[in-house]
Amino acid sequence: MSAEELYVKLADAVVDMDEAEAVKLSNQAVEEKVEAYDAIDKGLAKGMERAGKLFEEEEYFVPELIICSDAMNAGIAILKPHLKQGETAIRHRGVIGVIEGDTHDIGKNLVKIMLESSGFDILDLGRDVPPQTFVDKAIEYNADLILLSSLMTTTMDAMADVVKILEKQGVRNQFKVAVGGGPISKAFADRIGADGYGKNATEAVRLAQSLVSANQGLVK
């Protein structure tokens, strides 16, 4: 089997939610000395990208996407130790969580999965997270992005508090802030001084990619 054929089969294994096949093919890539980076980028990641499109087209739903992600991550676990030095240093970092007062985390979990599948390192802070914790963890994790989620109008103001704390501590220019969730709108994001708003998980990934592209000149 050529390397190109192997990439296609790796992608198919992810889309087909076949973790055992993803593991088998990843081991085969290692045995045949296929570049681990290419096997991830052209194989496993491509499969997750296809799964994301199926989600966008409402052919796949959250459970399918989670199983696809499991297959991809199982393959990555085998290939990652074989990456050449430097090939692991390209990932951007973000912290994500549901703002204080809210415990609805399905949307947040989906965004996390899709961001990780798109090459981001994401620190998940969980649910009911105080604004100060977002700032402290973003600094500690050396994040590029702070991603805030809320499904309740009563907790939206706490998102603004995150931006205010960043400004008060003099670190606002170190991070891009993105917000999302049922009651959130672009107008709200603009009003609190966030850098962007994602209507759904797919848009959140596009937004994150756009923000980190513009992030290169930020102070760190």
From TrEMBL:
A GO-annotated cellular component: cytosol
UniProt key word Metal-binding: yes
Protein name: Dimethylamine corrinoid protein
Gene3D superfamilies noted in UniProt: Cobalamin-binding domain, Methionine synthase domain
Domain B12-binding N-terminal: 1-91
Example of a GO biological process term: homocysteine metabolic process
Annotated B12-binding domain residues: 91-220
PANTHER family cross-referenced by the UniProt entry: METHIONINE SYNTHASE (PTHR45833)
Keyword Coiled coil: no
GO MF, any single term: cobalamin binding
UniProt similarity note: Belongs to the methylamine corrinoid protein family.
Organism the protein comes from: Leadbettera azotonutricia (strain ATCC BAA-888 / DSM 13862 / ZAS-9) (Treponema azotonutricium)
Cross-referenced InterPro entries: Cbl-bd_cap, Cobalamin-bd, Cobalamin-bd_sf, Met_Synthase/Corrinoid, Meth_synthase_dom
Highest taxon above the source species: Bacteria
UniProt-listed PROSITE patterns: B12_BINDING (PS51332), B12_BINDING_NTER (PS51337)
Swiss-Prot/TrEMBL keywords: Cobalt, Metal-binding
